[in-house]
Amino acid sequence: MLDNNNNNNKQNIQKNFKPGPEILKELYEVICDRKVNRKEGSYTNYLFDKGLDKILKKVGEEASEVIIAAKNNSFEEVKYEISDLIYHLFVLMVEQGLKPEDIYEELRSRR
Fold first, then answer.
1. Most buried residue among 17, 30, 49, 90 by CB atoms closer than 10 A?
2. What is the pTM of this model?
């Protein structure tokens, strides 16, 4: 899912991580940064380099995997696949110039 270049840094981040909605903001910011600042071996950069069609293909694949996981009634698998889907949706958002606030506003308008 995310870049796997620096395992030590990843472990430090995980140690200091407190679950909550802040992780979504952080994920969005990292993806935005990858769009502007290339990082060797970055899966996010790979997706941006391949373009919209590749990103859309991954969103579709991940959505299908969520459905299959849910049909298998596997909590852990559903959690994993939804996380992948959210990541790929965020890549799509950045590619399309959308910010989380745009989504919040749309959701708020549907209340």
1. 90
2. 0.83
